[in-house]
Amino acid sequence: MARKRGGNTKGKIVATAWRLFYEQGYDDTTVEEIIAESGTSRGSFYHYFEGKDALLSSLSYLFDEKYEALMPTIDPDMNSFDKLMYLNRELFGMIEDTVPFELLAQLYSSQLITRGEKHMLDQSRTYYKLLRQIVTEGQQRGELRTDITAKELARVYAITERGMMYDWCVSGGNYSLRGYAADMLPRLMASFRA
Question: Is the domain of 145 the same as that of 85?
């Protein structure tokens, strides 16, 4: 039971921090504001995070929460390729609507220089588990190619998404991430089809 409560506390801190980052900007948001707005304590904050900078890597946690919320909305009869495109549209829509490109760029930057855990590559994340599940299901149904492992197809898909997010950051967010991916991702991933 304590574990669930702890997860809820961390989730509250992360959700509150990213809301404040979006509303006020990263530099103008203080740890004290995050603690007060999340209804948590200073001790709880520092139990989970070394400081505000450590919250940058928690963006992947926020992405996973989005995927967990989307899972029950997916039609089980939908083609696996279409499921991947649906998840991408929803995630990129969330990013475009609630995550300033500057923060996403800081996340990428932090992942490039960290010597510690690289959250974006953590294969135990909901994101990777869901991708592998969808790809495996697609292979079993004969919808996706089987000459490449489910793990490798999921990896290529994730690399493609990260590349699109990276380019959006480098471009200063000057185009629609969601719109570009909706147009290009199906073309790029067409070779996944059986």
Answer: yes
